[in-house]
Amino acid sequence: MKRISLTMVRQDLNNIPTFAFPPNYRVRNYKPGEEHIWADIEVSVGEFEDKTAGLKHFDKEFGSFPEDMSARCLFIENEDGKVIGTTTAWYGAFQGEEAWGRIHWVAVHPDYQGQKLAKPLLSAALQILSHYHKKAYLTTQTTSYQAINMYLNYGFEPLITKSDCLEGWRLLEEALHRKMV
After folding, report:
1. Which of 156, 181, 177, 178 has its CA nearest to residue 168?
2. Which domain holds residue 132?
3. C-alpha closest to that of 28 among 80, 90, 71
4. Which of 127, 176, 115 is nearest to 154 (CA)?
5. For the domain that residue 110 is a member of, what is the CATH number?
6. pTM, 2 dp
7. Residue 98 resides in a domain
8. Which residues pair with 136 in a beta bridge?
9. What is the pLDDT of residues 17-58, one digit of tens each?
10. In 3D, which of 107, 129, 105 has the Cα closest to residue 118?
């Protein structure tokens, strides 16, 4: 599928779906000094070429906000305590308005994908956002159509921000067999 960048919004943070983690998995918060763990997960899903690039990006985006990261970045651990997933309940100025909550950098290591971990991770992140914000957004791309389907089920809606967005959402309607725009 053609890769087109997309934005989705959730106009309120009420009635967040809840899902429990499967047995032997748990969620916990990031601790200062664990940026290498974040980078490893993001490299595993192809977001960065290598750990050095991941760490550089982490420092650029989050390095000045260690307290926020401790409150807003989540890790999934398996029964051995190995971190195998992450997301950040972040924030950002959106459409010229006050800061919105932002679901940011969702990733589950490929060895653990398909084990029903993304929904409970997203639920936990949205719960965090609901303590700070009234609305949320996220950015994604057409190639993440399975994640987009989940976001739609969580009440996120397509937002047309540029001309090729409409093409992207039409591609997704075909792929997911559901009406979106």
Report:
1. 181
2. 5-176
3. 71
4. 127
5. 3.40.630.30
6. 0.96
7. yes
8. 10, 101
9. 999 999 999 999 999 999 999 999 999 999 999 999 999 999
10. 107
